[in-house]
Structure formats: C-alpha cells, structure tokens
Amino acid sequence: MTDSEQSKLIISGAVAAHDLLDEAQEESDSSSLEMELRQVMVPAESHGSRLDRALAGIVPEFSRSYLQQLIEAGVVQINGLVVQKTSSKVKAGDALIIELRPTPQSQAFKPEVMALDVVYEDPYLCVINKPAGLVVHPAPGNWSGTLLNGLLARDPQASFLPRAGIVHRLDKDTSGLMVVARQRSVMDQLVGLIAARDVHREYIALAHGAWQGAKTRQVEAAIGRDPRNRLRMAVVDLEKNSGKTASTVVSLLHNETKYCLVKCKLHTGRTHQIRVHMAFLGHPLVSDALYGGLPAGGLGRQALHAWRLAFEHPVTGEMMEFKSTPSADLQAAMADLGLIYNQD
Q1: Among 203, 219, 224, 335, which is most exposed with the fewest C-beta within 10 angstroms?
Q2: Full-model pTM
Q3: b/e per residue, 33-59, with b = 16+ CB within 10 A?
Q4: Is the per-residue pLDDT at 115 higher than 90?
Q5: 27: exposed, middle or buried (C-beta count within 10 Å: 0-12, 13-18, 19+)?
Q6: CA distances from 30 to 24, 25, 40 (A)
Q7: Each residue of 64-85: b (16+ CB within 10 Å) or e?
Q8: Which of 52, 94, 155, 171 is the catalytic position?
Q9: Closest CA to 201 of 322, 328, 115, 35
Q10: pLDDT for residue 316
C-alpha cells in the first residue's frame, strides 16, 4: 500500500468513524454514566495487525487483556460492524468504535473504605489482624471488597506497590495476622525474608480426632494440585505429579476424645498448606468441607487462626513479634468442644 493510498484510507476512515460514533451515541443508554464510546482510527503502522494488538497500541492506557474482554463482549466495531474475534486483522484507516465499559477486573484495583484492624504501623510496614471472611486479593467471584481494596483506600502509598504491598496471604475464612509493606524496597526485603523462612508464622487450629503419638510432629509432604479434583490441593508424589515441597511443625495444645487443638508452624507457604497437611495426618480442620472437615462447635468456617507473627524489621533490624487472640467464633467453638486454649 502506497503512502497516498494510506492517507486516503485514513481520511475516509475519519469521516466514517465520526458518522458511526454519532449513530452509536444516539443508540446508547444515556443513563449509563460509566460507559464511554471512543472513536479511533487504525494508523498505518498497525496495518495488518490483530485487532487486540492494534487497540493496545492505539489506546495504551488500557491493558490488552481488558481490550480483549471488550472485543469478546461484542462492544468493538470495525467500520460499523461488530467484531468479536480478537485475532481479526485490521487495515490502515479502519474506523473503530470501542465501548469502554468497566469490567470486574478493571474495577478490581480501586480504593474501598473499610474498617481494618491495624495492630502495628510505621513508615515502612504495617501488621493487619484480618477477620475471617475477608478475601485478600481480588479474584473471580471477589473482584471487590478485598483487603487490597481496603489498603488502597487507607494508604496513598499502596497504589505505587504491587498488590498494594501484600507479601503473603491468608485464605478468605482464615483469620489472623498479616504483614504488609508500605515501601517497595521493604516489600522486596519482606518477600526475601519469607523465602528464606525468616518470617515466623504460627497458627492455632481446631481439628477432628483425638491426637495420637508424639505431641510434636514435623510434616514433610509435598503439596500440589489434587489430580482428582483441580479445585483443591493435596499431598502429592513429586515423581508422579507436579507440586512443591512443604514443611509444617504441628504441636498438640489440648486433646479430647473427638477433637484436638494444635499449633502449626509454617516453614514453607504453600496454598492451603496447614489444611492439606492436617487432613493428610487424619485430622481435618473443623468445618473445612473442602478437605473433609465437618461442622462442629457452631463454627461456619475452617477452624484456623494466624495467632503469631515474628520477623526482623527490614529497616530498623529490630525483632518484631505480634500475637492475636483467636476470634470470638473460634473461642466459642473451642469452649463448646471442651478444648482449652492458653496463648502463652
């Protein structure tokens, strides 16, 4: 295509895009304040490109994955025709109209004011006591109302950090302590401390079955995706299945005929590690339906609480230690099942 031909295409495309935009705006719902119709033209350098790639270059303020969602949703037009294939080819001068609308993902990283239990804070980091029921990161099914959203609203610095400074997570229904970075250099150092196993994390767990044998057991059992149920994790044989090594020290705190109260210390941080290892030992957590635990003690979520967090401050070098009393629902379940908890 010659420069003259490309210029003609671009000029005609501009006129076509203007007419199409007027028509689309008339047909759109004027009450939708969050929707924007954007008129763009395919430049010469994008001639022959995929539609999603061309759009990513034309409107770089939006991610390519977001633009792909819009294409597949049927809200992108090429020369007046709706196109839903991200791989469709475009030509220089094509008139494009994009209906820029919020998707759950595009709305995920927005500040949301919420009450957070901050037990410690300095210019470099903070420690949060997370309640059960609060999701840590936005994900399918929970694109809003997460700890990340709350951190963005609470701390202006959080928007400049990956994942708002979150360096480790707790499951939605696990309560307890988490450390969050407030500066990028501190975040990198905390990640390094966790990888080196220098962040000490201990949990209180209420489990099925009377504890047998030694009061302290070290579980060394690799964890990977359950080959029979991809929605959960499992202890796996690394020679046959993909996974990662996992290490947990479990210590008995109190025993009853049908239940036991244990302390679990993590030496690695695999997904659902304590829940998987306890089930592997034949002691699934109370109310942990995913791993075989049955409801008991009136508890509506898995009986797991991150009660102790200790680490060397990445900046000051001070040894930091925090403890959190189990939440009211967990304490009530212990009392109901005759288990005694002494934090010390």
Answers
A1: 335
A2: 0.73
A3: eeeebebbbbbeebbebbbbbbbbebe
A4: yes
A5: exposed
A6: 11, 8, 21
A7: eebbbbbbeeebbbbbeeeeee
A8: 171
A9: 322
A10: 96
Q: Which two tokens stand for residue 99?
A: 């209906």
pLDDT band at 49 (very low <50, low <70, confident <90, very high): very high
What six digits make up the tokens of 193? 């401390």
Q: To the nearest whole number, what is the mean pLDDT of the chain?
A: 87
Distance CA 322, CA 331 (A): 19
CA dist list (Å): 38 to 80, 90, 98, 101, 244: 13, 17, 5, 10, 46
A 10 A CB-CB count for 210 gives 13
> Cα separation of 55 and 50, whole Å?
9
4-32: per-residue pLDDT in tens?
A: 444 444 334 443 444 443 333 333 333 33
Long-range contacts at 152-161 (CB < 8 A, ≥ 24 apart)? 152/109, 152/110, 152/111, 152/112, 153/111, 153/112, 153/113, 153/114, 154/113, 154/116, 155/126, 155/182, 157/182, 157/183, 158/182, 159/111, 160/184, 161/187
pLDDT tens per residue across span 242-297:
999 999 999 999 999 999 999 999 999 899 999 999 999 999 999 999 999 999 99
Percentage of the chain exceeding pLDDT 70: 87
| 171 classed as catalytic | yes
Between CA 98 and CA 39 the distance in angstroms is 7
